[in-house]
Design goal:
Elements lengths: L19 E3 L19 E5 L8 E4 L5 E4 L9 H9 L5 E5 L11 H11 L3 E6 L7 H12 L3 E4 L4 E2 L7 E7 L15 E6 L2 E5 L5 H11 L7 E3 L11 H7 L3 E4 L12 H9 L3 E4 H4 L2 E5 L4 E5 L7 H12 L11 H6 L37 E3 L2 E3 L15 E2 L4
Parallel strand pairs: 4-5, 5-6, 6-7, 11-12, 12-13, 13-14
Antiparallel strand pairs: 1-16, 2-3, 2-15, 3-4, 8-19, 9-10, 10-11, 15-16, 17-18
Helix pairs in contact: 2-3, 6-8
Amino acid sequence: MRRELLVVAVAGLLVFAGCSSGIDGMGGGDGATGDVDVSGALEIHHIDVEQADSTLIVTPSNETILIDTGDYRDDGKAVIDYLTAHDIDRIDHLIATHGHADHIGGHPVIIEYFEENKNGVGAAYDSGIPHPTATYEHYLDAVEAYNVSFYEVVAGDRLPLADGGLEATVLNPPDGDASGDIDTNGIVLSVTFGDFSYLTTGDLDASGERRLAERDGDDLASDVYQAGHHGSSTSSNAPFLDRVDPDIAVVSSAVDSRYGHPHDEVLAAFADRGIETYWTGVHGDIVVTTNGTAVSVATEQNASTDPAALLERKHAVQSALVAPLARNEPYAEIEVGLPTTDSDRPSAAGTAARTAGGDVMSESYLKQRESPAIYGGRESRHSTTRTTGYSPAGVSKSSAA
């Protein structure tokens, strides 16, 4: 890869029932090293939310970035439990990579919980591609009910972070593209801290990966890569992986995934490239910690990180599943059994939604907007603010954009 990272063991920094280890062989290719002095530790928590996605980033200054919030059936419970266990009392930046219910399922409840019981949500970030489900409507209703700052972001935008040596840059969706597939135009985020870089792509598919690879080339190189689309073969294609060239990959999916995640081709590609692989379905919660020059990974459960061994374990578990779902249709993988009204939830225009514990949410949470706003030719429920300079309440434009 393009950077050399010093390897040090930080066992004991993160407390889990499983393991904590330094990563050998980080880097190896050409590229610039960080010129900005950094201090403290950056933590990236991949929360085990089974067949869904949720990632918590805690910066050295204790700012929090929560990327996706799990499946709507769990209603945010697993994520709230995890955040509570880690003494998180505020979400500074809440990101919805895209509107599918296995990524924003906990957004409504988490917004309400942190606004009512903790120190609130600083801002919400969205791709601007709406999705016609009650889950997506409930998410927007919660944003409005609690007056959470709401931003549609595009490639080149940066989150306003306090740490000088830390940057979180949006790589997707492209600026000016007001249409297209919800996965293709989901939020892709690159996080850099000193000599360390992290890439998370949501459910970005092959066409989106191709676009990024052609535009950004080797600038996509990252030490840690969260595998797109839960390890589906719709993502992590060879040309894209060659550009990202990660040392570590993290897959967020259930060990008994009915979709066969992570797909065999993806694990084989990781094995061919010698990528150390972590899988929430096997390792549980996975936390990457770095000081900008060294990287450590802590897991809830001890398990092999050899992709070939994980493939064998996957086959042992998933071969017993009855009638696995189709694996070659991205929408089917996300929304089988999930009609546009999210039938297990009340309609957005219907009665009050309920939390996982059965308590009826506040009426303010279900407040409906009378007239939607329009962004760039596509309908959205909220107006958004775009700033061109750094603002604690806004999004800054990258100088490279």
